[in-house]
Amino acid sequence: MRAVVQRVGESSVAVAGEVVARIGRGLLVLLGVGAADTTREAAALAEKIVHLRIFEDAQGKLNRSLIETAGELLVVSQFTLLGECRSGRRPSFTAAAPAEKAAALYADFVSAAAGFGVSVQTGRFRARMAVSLVNDGPVTLIVDSP
Fold this sequence. Notes:
Blueprint: E1 2-15, E2 18-23, E3 26-32, H1 39-51, E4 55-56, E5 62-64, H2 66-69, E6 72-77, H3 99-114, E7 119-122, E8 129-144
Parallel strand pairs: 3-6, 6-7
Antiparallel strand pairs: 1-2, 1-3, 1-8, 4-5
Helix pairs in contact: 1-3
């Protein structure tokens, strides 16, 4: 699994002009599921992300996690994160999981994150989404599953 994690002041997802999810301060996670990924990777990645120390403490150091700040989490599926662009000009998506498997592991990731007491919102799997965000910092990380 691959996640692009962005610390946000706010973020939302719209499908066909309708806002389907919205968070305040927290993390926007764009999540790509690979063909070889398992439930174990989904749980490990969720744990890693909710515990990442990327929020400032009183001294301005990145020392606090999403859990410690009571931040919210918005998870958006994005299979294009697994796109391979090393050769040619058209990305190959053979490393991405098939839709059925990806949907199940996406749900496992969301469930694992919620299990830590985090407020989790989601995009709509396989929908064309318009993602809006106010990047805070900006702080943006790419996090791969173990």
